[in-house]
Amino acid sequence: MDPEDVSHLSDQVQIDLEKLEKIMAEFDMGPDSCSLAERTSKLPLLDRAQFYITLSYAILSTLFSSLKLQGVDTSSHPILKELDRVKMYSKKIKNIEELTAGRTLKVDQEAAGRFLKAALVGNQDKEPKRGIHTRFGEDPAINKPERSDAEEPTQKKKKRKQSKGGNSTKTKTKHKQKEDE
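Structure for Exosome complex protein, as requested:
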């Protein structure tokens, strides 16, 4: 390898490490700061999982790079298995994101109509039927049904009128006769 290529790569590593330090400074776990779990508890479930996977991958890849720089053979090292496991979880999260992105809520209008009809049918039986009550003689705006002179009340109506308020002697004598018997 050319020494110029190595110096260019070391400069790039230095820039990346500075970016990483800025990001990790946000997660400073001082004695007065809240824990990582408390900070991430406000995130939605999918975002929280993605955050933990990304953080795990960043830590593991940094350790992997450190091992490589020290000259350790990483082909059989357990860190390689951990990196593969994190990559697998990352793929699972991407699959879930794709499924939820394509999913939209669709209302089944026919089912909703059947549901509403079934719910409203019961309400009609429970409500009492209300008629319109009109009182004649109180409000001049209400039309009274008019009687023609040709119509005469039946005999029963005449008797009721007489017994209620009439001074008919026949009705009084009938009542007295019934009392005497």
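The first helix runs from residue 3 to 25.
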